[in-house]
Amino acid sequence: MSEPLDPDMFAGCRNIVPPMRMHNKWALKIMVCLEPGRRRFSELQVPLRGITPKVLTESLRAMERDGFVTRTAYPGVPPRVEYELTDLGRSLLGPMDAWCRWSEEHLTELEAAREAYDAAV
């Protein structure tokens, strides 16, 4: 039998919010779109089929709040807005690439585990 877990094992830790908003399925895809450079809102909508303008706006605002994206507004009619990854946002591209490679390598195992679990439940 293994040792019981210490009930105070996290006592010294702050309540840390994960850096990526994992509930936002669009954040990683937005980062991939912004990897080559600045993009306008309408440009982001093209590869992100299925995202509503509202959800794209909310996602970009959350990413801006977290310091991953900058938003630059230019005067004019209609107003022009561009989004770009910050250095902090760019620093996530490497770990994100590793996560994608892991997912590709283990996708069949993951799907098999899910199917086995669903069949047993």
Automatic annotation (TrEMBL):
UniProt keyword list = DNA-binding, Transcription, Transcription regulation
Matches recorded under Pfam families = HxlR
- UniProt signal peptide: none
Keyword hit for ATP-binding: no
HTH hxlR-type domain residues: 13-111
Q: Which InterPro entries match?
A: HTH_HxlR, WH-like_DNA-bd_sf, WH_DNA-bd_sf
Q: What domain of life does the native source organism fall in? A: Bacteria
PANTHER family according to UniProt: TRANSCRIPTIONAL REGULATOR, MARR FAMILY (PTHR33204), TRANSCRIPTIONAL REGULATORY PROTEIN (PTHR33204:SF39)
Q: What is this protein called?
A: Winged helix-turn-helix transcriptional regulator
